[in-house]
Every structure is written in structure tokens, then in C-alpha cells.
Amino acid sequence: MTRLIELVDITKVFGKQTVLNHVDLYIRQNEFVTLLGPSGCGKTTTLRIIGGFEQPTGGDVFFNGESMLKTPPHKRKLNTVFQKYALFPNMNVAENIAFGLKIEKVPKNIIQEKVKSMLKLVNLDGFEKRQVTALSGGQQQRVAIARALVNEPQVLLLDEPLGALDLKLRKEMQVELKNMQQKLGITFVYVTHDQEEALTMSDTVAIMNEGKILQIGVPEDIYNEPKNAFVANFIGESNILPGKMLEDFRVEFAGAAFTCVDKGFDKNEPVDIVVRPEDIRLNDKSTPSDGVLKGMVSQVIFKGVHYEMRVETPGISWKVHSTKQSPAGSQVGLSIAPESIHVMKGPSR
Asked: What angle do CA 100, 103, 104 make, to 5 degrees?
């Protein structure tokens, strides 16, 4: 797949604060890439540098192999959708969508065709003459997306566009956005702090923190193979604890030895262990054995699709997710399969 955008050794300094610290990133044609991280990690600044709204302090941005540093935003083949949709309140839906085409002096009949096509794409057929101020938040968001797409950009930048929507509508729009991107074949670069959004929509996820990209990969790899404790904690819920790699495929943690699927560590090397709550199996065989820990359930919370339980073992409080409840106060065994144990270089705390 062709590399469409490349960020090479990008730094950005505001005053004495380094917001981006030697960031390298490439984005391929027709790819849905999400920049994911907590507030202040540098993801929006990265998006703004791609869009030309900010100039980097150091490094370069390439589009189809050509430097874009001297190209203003309006001459880059991209459009942006912000969290605040910035629609024109004095214009109706069709006029908002057509605005960019009119600026480019596109013939009226072609404008009408393109607006009609966009309305169909964003499920707003028949809304042409509706005032945008009379629309719901989700409908306004669709208009903003249609306005950004009608000019047929090669890249669409989206800066937390679903942040103002309620949970149900946000989930619906996640699916719709992904469908739009696949149907149009446009590269989407998406910024969010919502892990579920990133995992649901993305072809590639870049995890950012403190101005650096910590890990890049497909959602499944990011979730199942986090490179460090920050990524493991930020993507989903995790039990993270110190351990020791005894030898290839053998690790010690929580006072017991376990078979694992990891190799390539030094003998007795200190490591970090990640075990997802949903990967722990509870049973009533509370006798300690290989791969089984003895514990007591201290708390049970019903979460709808599963129970979240706290299980106490000597020195460790485990978070466990299960569709079956073990009552508080009960003695249980914790079984962890080898493929459910992820070993990371550590200690990283």
C-alpha cells in the first residue's frame, strides 16, 4: 500500500514545553489511522501539523513524497472535521455542504449532484432545505462530514468529531464513519482519547503519550501485544504486575511459576506481566497448582454483559471479568492459560 503521508522527526515546542518529541509516522493511502492517547499527549498537534495549521519546530511532512511545510492548508489535498462542527447557522443543509464547491466555482448542476450524493452517503436524504440550527447534534455532525467530503479530498482529518454526542449515537456513528471511509476509499486520520472508538474503526492505531508514539499497530496487536505498561493500561483494563522470566516459555509471578508463550528474554530477567481481566478463569478448585492461584472474592459488581470481581491473592488484588458470578467471600482458583500471559520488558513502573 502506497505511503501517502510521512512525518519525519517532527518536534514541536511551545515556549519551554516540548509537545512533540521526534515523532516519525507514515500513513498509507486509503488507510484509517487513529492517533490515540490522553489529553495533552500531542495527538491534536500532530493532526494540525498534517493539516498545515501548525508548523513543526523541527522535522518535515511529506505528501506523496513532496515536502508540505511551505504549502498552506487550503492548498493541501485534505479537509478537516473538528469537534465543534463550525457550520454556518445562516445557511441550510445544502448550502453548508455546497460552500466549498461554490468557492471553487464549480458549475451549479454539478454542485447539486454532489450535494445530493453526499446527503445520501450521510443518511440525510430530504434534509436539503433544513436549517442546521434545527438539527440534532448527530445530524449536524453528518452535515460537517458531508461538507468536508464533497470536495473529494485525498485525506480527511477528524479531531474528536464524536466527542459531543451521547454514547448510543457515538457508537452508531463509529460504524457509519468506517463504512463511509471504506466506500469512498479516502484516507482518514482520526484523533481520539476513546479506546473503544480506536479499536472499532481503525486499520492502524498509534498510541501517544507525552509527545511520543509508544506503539503503532493493528487494533488486535495493540490490545493483545502491548509493548509497555502504559499501552496495556490505556487500551482496555489490565492486571499488570512484576515477574521474572525463568527461561523461554516459563515465567514466575504472583508467587507461582506459569507456562507462557514468550521467549527471547535473559534467564531470570525482571519483566512486567499483563493479564487481561477477561482472560482469567475462576473455578472452585482452590488448591494451588501449576497455572492456578488460590484467592478469595472480595467484591462483585454487575456490569451488564459480565460481572467484574476483585479476587485477593497474597499481595495482589486481581480484577476478573466473567459471565458467571462467584459470590463475595468465596474461595476460588484463578487459572491463566499460557496464551493469556503477556510478558513485557520491565520493570516499567
From this structure: 90
Q: CA separation (Å) from 116 to 20, 119, 122, 126, 315?
A: 41, 5, 10, 9, 63
Residue 338 exposed, middle or buried by CB count within 10 Å (0-12, 13-18, 19+): middle
Place of cell 515477574: 243
Closest CA to 340 of 276, 249, 251: 276
212 in Cβ contact with 206 (< 8 Å) = no
- Work out whether the CA dihedral 246, 251, 257, 261 comes out positive or negative: negative
Q: Which residues contact 14 (CB under 8 A, 6 or more apart)?
A: none
Please tell me the number of Cα atoms within 13 Å of 59 on its side-chain side: 23
* CA 234 and chain centroid, separation: 10
What is the predicted pLDDT for the residue at 169?
80
**Residue 142 confidence (pLDDT) above 90:** no
Residues 6+ apart with CB under 8 A from 260: 249, 250, 251, 338, 341, 343
Interval 195-235: pLDDT, tens: 989 999 999 999 999 999 999 999 999 998 899 989 998 99
pTM of the model: 0.85
Residue 320: Cβ within 10 Å count: 25
d(CA 45, CA 12): 8
Q: Are 19 and 45 in contact (CB under 8 A)?
A: yes
In sequence order, the 6+-apart residues with CB closer than 8 A to the CB of 110 are: 101
